[in-house]
Amino acid sequence: MSSFLLFVLLHIPLALAHGYVSRVTVDGTEYVGNPPGHNTSSSPIRMVSSNGPVQNLSSPFLACGPDAQPAQLEAIAAPGSVINITWVSGGGGNWPHEVGPVLTYMAECTNTTTCKDFDTTGARWFKIDEAGKQSDNVSWVQLYIEEGRNFNMTLPENLAPGPYLLRNEIIGLQNAMARGGAEPFPSCTQLIVTGNGTGVPAANETVSFPGAYNSTDPGIWFNAYDNTHTPYVFPGPPVAVLINATAAQTNDTETNNTTAPALDAPSPEKYKLPPSGTPELDAPSHDGCTEMDATPVLTVMAARGRIALVEL
Ligand SMILES: *[C@@H]1O[C@H](CO)[C@@H](O)[C@H](O)[C@H]1NC(C)=O
Ligand SMILES: *[C@@H]1O[C@H](CO)[C@@H](O)[C@H](O)[C@H]1NC(C)=O
Ligand SMILES: *[C@@H]1O[C@H](CO)[C@@H](O)[C@H](O)[C@H]1NC(C)=O
Ligand SMILES: *[C@@H]1O[C@H](CO)[C@@H](O)[C@H](O)[C@H]1NC(C)=O
Ligand SMILES: *[C@@H]1O[C@H](CO)[C@@H](O)[C@H](O)[C@H]1NC(C)=O
Ligand SMILES: *[C@@H]1O[C@H](CO)[C@@H](O)[C@H](O)[C@H]1NC(C)=O
Ligand SMILES: *[C@@H]1O[C@H](CO)[C@@H](O)[C@H](O)[C@H]1NC(C)=O
Ligand SMILES: *[C@@H]1O[C@H](CO)[C@@H](O)[C@H](O)[C@H]1NC(C)=O
Ligand SMILES: *[C@@H]1O[C@H](CO)[C@@H](O)[C@H](O)[C@H]1NC(C)=O
Ligand SMILES: *[C@@H]1O[C@H](CO)[C@@H](O)[C@H](O)[C@H]1NC(C)=O
Ligand SMILES: *[C@@H]1O[C@H](CO)[C@@H](O)[C@H](O)[C@H]1NC(C)=O
Ligand SMILES: *[C@@H]1O[C@H](CO)[C@@H](O)[C@H](O)[C@H]1NC(C)=O
Asked: How far, in Å, are 8, 24, 156 from residue 82 at the CA level?
């Protein structure tokens, strides 16, 4: 590598090397997020303080991102809702990484009718989606995000109504050949799920953040360049098979504690209708961005597994 290129790489601001969720679309309704530390508009997306990863797997920030703050709004969703998530670089350009999975969890905001005041400390997260390598078993779904596409997923078809946090997480594995090198980027969006679903996670399907990941997990300490065909083992629990809240509660009563208790069944009555007021629809905030985007350079570096030069 030329010393000039090395000089340039070492001086790319971190703001351009990582990123954040700039927009979440639920069944076609767009919700715009705030750039890290710039609280300029009301949003259901919890604002983070930096666009860097949460590499300390014991940190409370592993729940929703660096110093994530409760947000003012909730996005209205329903069982089976199509969710599209837009990840951008710190400068507003394309997401800069391409190696590693995208995982999605939810947690009911318990003991409250909204997520606005919900503290994630006691949250019981269940996984609803995990996306890794594409069908060629070589390139990752994250590559699509780097190309500027949204990440798409759907909510469970039988999801019980209630307030939930949706935790969408990219785990960058470009440095994960070293223990501690994985780069989780969690992001949380506050949802109100409507409808008449009955599905809740079983107790053994829920995890806490921090707590769910260990630096020795095969999906966390993983050399993505060693043999690109190596099967990938997702970290965290399996995708939850939501059980019928009514049946689960009945069984609990009958068996008197021999069945692991399900989460409290949210009351459908409370969430039949969206709360008053239509969520704001702001224009995407990154369209006018004029900052230079370092994506092409970073892509080359990531492919060589040397992106650590930029980030350390
Ligand atoms: C990781 O986070 C935990 C919990 O906040 C903290 O106690 C610990 O010091 C952190 N470790 C490092 C290396 O920063
Ligand atoms: C963002 O601004 C709104 C409106 O001024 C305020 O209610 C909220 O507390 C602010 N959030 C943060 C994280 O500063
Ligand atoms: C919810 O409230 C109940 C009753 O007050 C309490 O036992 C429980 O610990 C609370 N759960 C959370 C997650 O705060
Ligand atoms: C999300 O959906 C759009 C529209 O169908 C598609 O173009 C895009 O490739 C999808 N994103 C991913 C990551 O698959
Ligand atoms: C959202 O995802 C759905 C399902 O993949 C897709 O049909 C739709 O085009 C996507 N919308 C956007 C804005 O990406
Ligand atoms: C929920 O059930 C009520 C009646 O029990 C019905 O009126 C309503 O349309 C249902 N909502 C959905 C989203 O299916
Ligand atoms: C949870 O417990 C059920 C019943 O014992 C079992 O079938 C299931 O595999 C367990 N799930 C997990 C994620 O351990
Ligand atoms: C991670 O796994 C190692 C090896 O199994 C274990 O010694 C350590 O206690 C675990 N750490 C956490 C935080 O669970
Ligand atoms: C769940 O329980 C409710 C109430 O008993 C019942 O109406 C519904 O059909 C059940 N759903 C499933 C998938 O078993
Ligand atoms: C509850 O018990 C019924 C009848 O014994 C059984 O069919 C059902 O699968 C059980 N549900 C759960 C969640 O264990
Ligand atoms: C169920 O638990 C209660 C409270 O601990 C206990 O008094 C009762 O004997 C138990 N019943 C059965 C059938 O185990
Ligand atoms: C029910 O299970 C909990 C958690 O395992 C335990 O602490 C409690 O003592 C049990 N209660 C009864 C009545 O067995």
From this structure: 40, 10, 10
What are the pLDDT digits (tens) for 129-184?
999 998 888 899 999 999 999 999 999 999 999 999 999 999 999 999 999 999 99
Does ligand 5 have an atom closer than 6 angstroms to the CB of 82? yes
- Give the residue among 182, 201, 183 at the shortest CA–CA distance from 106: 201
Question: What's the pTM?
Answer: 0.76
Contact 148, 22 (CB under 8 A): no
- Overall fold of domain 14-293: Coagulation Factor XIII; Chain A, domain 1 (2.70.50)
Q: For residues 289 and 141, give the distance between their C-alpha atoms in angstroms, rounded to a whole number.
A: 25
Q: Is 196 in the pocket of ligand 6 (CB under 6 A)?
A: yes
pLDDT higher than threshold 70 for residue 307: no
Cβ atoms 19, 51 nearer than 8 A: yes
Instruction: Tell me the three state secondary structure of residue 236.
Output: coil
Q: What are phi and psi of 286, to 5 degrees?
A: -100, 0
Q: For the chain, which residues make up each domain, given as ranges? A: 14-293
245 C-alpha to ligand 9 centroid (Å) = 8
φ, ψ of residue 196 in degrees (nearest 5): -120, 25
Counting Cα atoms < 13 Å in the Cβ hemisphere of 134 gives 11
